[in-house]
């Protein structure tokens, strides 16, 4: 769908006026830009005198959320690894008991191996999680960059249309 008017874009964003354009909706606005008529997009962006600051704040918020997510994830991973290590320590102590049958020792060894497999699986899941988080940050930063480029492009186009053209004076 190509948006041909500001009213269509406001309706798609669920806002009544540009004053209601939150950071979240700004990101949605950026994602919609490829579907907008160029002139309409530039007219909208020109209405934001502090657009650069707004886009910067949006990126800063994303960075803060990303750092918080990574920190919480790191702590969670450390707890998981510590728990698996503690389980293996308990199993090793059990394995040292002389009175255990071969079947009991075999079971304990299998449990030690299982904790290794589970820990490896948890590590793989964590890497997939981090990959997903990174992709979201890249998309958000790309949207903010697109808004910044559109803003700068709109200002340059506006300034060039206001300045005298290359009219030949001989």
What does this structure look like?
With 170 residues, this protein is mainly α. The chain has one domain. The protein has 5 helices and no strands. It has helices spanning 6-13, 23-32, 38-46, 51-95, 102-162. Helix 2 packs across helix 4 (51-95) and helix 2 (23-32) crosses helix 5. The longest helix is centred in the last third of the chain and has 61 residues, at 102-162. Residues 166-170 have low confidence and may be disordered.
How many E-type strands? 0
The major beta sheet can be summarized as: none
Helicity level, as a percent range? over 70%
Query: What is the succession of H and E elements?
Result: HHHHH
Shape label: rod-shaped
The percentage of residues in β strands lies in under 5%
Taking pLDDT < 50 over at least 5 consecutive residues as the criterion, the unreliable ranges are 166-170
How many helical stretches? 5
Radius of gyration: 28 Å
Average residue pLDDT = 76
Number of domains: 1
**What's the end-to-end separation, in Å?**
48 Å
Helix/strand class = mainly alpha
Structure keywords:
about 170 residues, mainly alpha, disordered C terminus
Structure described in brief:
The protein has 170 residues and is mainly alpha-helical. It has 5 helices and no strands. It has one domain (6-160).
